[in-house]
Amino acid sequence: MEKVKELTTKLVQNIENVIIGKRRAIQLVVLGLICEGHVLIEDVPGVGKTMLARSLARSLDCSFSRIQCTPDMLPSDITGVEIFNQAKATFKFLPGPILNQIVLADEINRATPKTQSALLEAMQERQVTISGVTHPIPVPFIVLATQNPIEYEGTFPLPEAQLDRFMVKVSIGYPGITEEMAVIENQQLAHPIESIKPVTNAKNILEVQKIIRTVFIAEAVKKYIVEITQETRAADTVYLGASPRGSLALARACQAWAAMYGRDFVIPDDVKLLAEATLGHRIILSSSARLQELRTGDLIRDILRKVPVPGGDFRSE
Amino acid sequence: YTLSLPAPPADRDVADYFLFDLQTGYCDYYATSMVVLARAVGLPSRVVVGYVGGQYDEENNQYLVSEADAHTWVEVYFNGYGWIPFEPTAARNLIDEDALSLPLPPELELPSQTSEAVGQMEFPGSEVSLGVFVLLIIGMWFWNRIDLARLQHMDTTSLALEIYQRLFKYGRWVGLGHHKSDTLYEFNQRLKNAFSSLETDPRREKMLAGGEIEISQLTKYAILANYSVRPLGEELSGDILLIWKRLRIRMRYVIWISAWKSLGKKIFKRENKDVQLNLIINGAADGKG
């Protein structure tokens, strides 16, 4: 576990040179990477989403591509096309941007449902099939999809069933005063991203991905995770709660988080910390709840207050 | 006091006439008025008519009592003491205590709770209570030894949990009860906050310093015991017991302070600038390793 802690700490610190003052967001993105999951970043424009993805790719020495989604995008713009080479009379496959390790899909809610599903399918399968030929996507593979929380006209919001495929939802947010001043200062002469160096490579990441699966989860803690997920289904302000995919995601995320702190077992504090990030976007609130301006964050906080924390033989009040 | 009086008017109450109009008279008047007044305030009382004093005739070894010795006085009943005589008539001597030792007729007998009984009740079995106290001390010492032996024989994992359970109990006594949705680290943080906010003066600081570290250590052991896959090493049980011994003293001190402060609040009814021991839950887990 020490190896995981060392590697992730170096990674986070490296990225922090570019994105200032957003440690938690960076940690969650790294968490998504080592859990072999994908990350949904929901944020206002201009807070550094693209920079985050690019600095991640640079720190890992991995290939990076950016997909700017527009309503007139076609699935082949993502996956790639086969072009007929008249001279050789053969089809040549031109790989699309998805065939990279770090993929930033900007404004995924602007793409048409058909294109969205192409992207999501590639995320799921980790391979692309064109004309019967399967092209695997190189590992470690992570898609960072971004969404604007402000509804513009002409968007196709991702249905919740598709949102379920994202492991964590991250929100970067605006920086504080000192941080924003530091941003201006850092970018005065040159952009810091030009100067950051890789701190690790793909092979190490793959190893880390295997290691985190060995983190121990006590029976009581597993029960705690499942109880929380089940509560999201039972609450009366909820139209649709988190699925078993949600509990699995939460469990895996807790394992990764524990490893990132050098621990080889999960504690309930990890669960409490990651519950909102992993389960928040999988829940659909009922219309009455939305009318009351309730948010999923409030719901999860209430659930965490309600569900008893397991602790061996602890008799609590 | 006078013996030469006109008879009271027939349509007037005697006591009323005596107290407000005559304002002078002899023993009947005084006694009657006192009884009326005593009964008016709720004291059971009665008029006693008899002979007081007399001349002692040495030749015949007897008292010579004449009509001039006739007298009226008052007796008032007090619970536990019986009928106590009172002398309301001015110009009369106060009651001679020795006269009471003459044998009274049965219906005037005082109830059994006399001064002898009262004397006994003042020190109820002082030797018994001392004995009980000593037994208590010995009993507590024995219980302590047995408890310690039991703790030392536990395996370290259960020991860590048992000790932490006791820490919860102490925490409850200072109002930092463990809520079911708190994790151990959250409880840990609240307890530490309580400690640090109590260290207001050097004397307290001396007592409480090091307590925060001890709490953190015990929490760490409890977390390892609870959620880790490996059992705790046996060599740690000595450490755990030692830490708990020290921390227990500090916790008792904290309970003492908090009890004192709540007492002070009740007496002086002012806002204490010291900590409110019921604290806000602090989100402690930044993934403490």
Characterise this structure.
In chain A, 45% of the residues lie in helices and 15% in strands. Chain A has 13 helices and 11 strands. The longest helix of chain A is centred in the C-terminal third of the chain and has 17 residues, at 244-260. In chain A, α1 (2-16) crosses α2 (23-34), α9 (219-234) crosses α10 and α11 packs antiparallel against α13 (296-306). A 5-stranded parallel sheet of chain A has the order 2-5-8-1-9. Mean pLDDT of chain A is 87; it is low at 312-317. With 289 residues, chain B is mainly α. Chain B folds into 2 domains: 1-147, no CATH class; 154-257, no CATH class. Chain B is built from 9 helices and 5 strands, in the order ααβββββααααααα. In chain B, a hairpin with a 4-residue loop joins β2 and β3. The interface between A and B is medium-sized, with 33 and 27 residues.
Question: Keywords, please?
Answer:
heterodimer; A: 317 residues; alpha/beta; 5-stranded parallel sheet; two-stranded antiparallel ribbon; disordered C terminus; B: 289 residues; mainly alpha; 2 domains; 3-stranded antiparallel sheet; elongated
Mean pLDDT of chain A: 87
Main sheet makeup of chain B: 3 strands, antiparallel
Share of residues in helices of chain B: 40-55%
Helix content of chain A: 40-55%
Structural class of chain A: alpha/beta
Strand content of chain B: 5-15%
Neighbour order of strands in the largest sheet of chain B: 1-4-5
Provide a count of the helices of chain B: 9
**Backbone structural class of chain B:** mainly alpha
| Largest interface chains and counts | A-B, 33 and 27 residues
Shape, principal axes of CA atoms of chain B: elongated
β-sheet strand percentage of chain A: 15-25%
Draw up the topology in text.
The complex is a heterodimer of chains A (317) and B (289).
Chain A: H1 2-16, H2 23-34, E1 39-42, H3 49-60, E2 64-68, H4 75-79, E3 80-85, E4 90-95, E5 102-106, H5 113-125, E6 127-130, E7 133-136, E8 142-147, H6 160-163, E9 168-170, H7 177-186, H8 202-212, H9 219-234, E10 238-240, H10 244-260, H11 268-279, E11 284-285, H12 287-291, H13 296-306
Parallel strand pairs in A: 1-8, 1-9, 2-5, 5-8
Antiparallel strand pairs in A: 3-4, 6-7, 10-11
Helix pairs in contact in A: 1-2, 9-10, 9-11, 10-11, 11-13
Chain B: H1 14-22, H2 27-40, E1 45-51, E2 55-57, E3 62-64, E4 70-78, E5 82-86, H3 115-121, H4 126-153, H5 156-173, H6 184-198, H7 202-208, H8 211-227, H9 236-268
Antiparallel strand pairs in B: 1-4, 2-3, 4-5
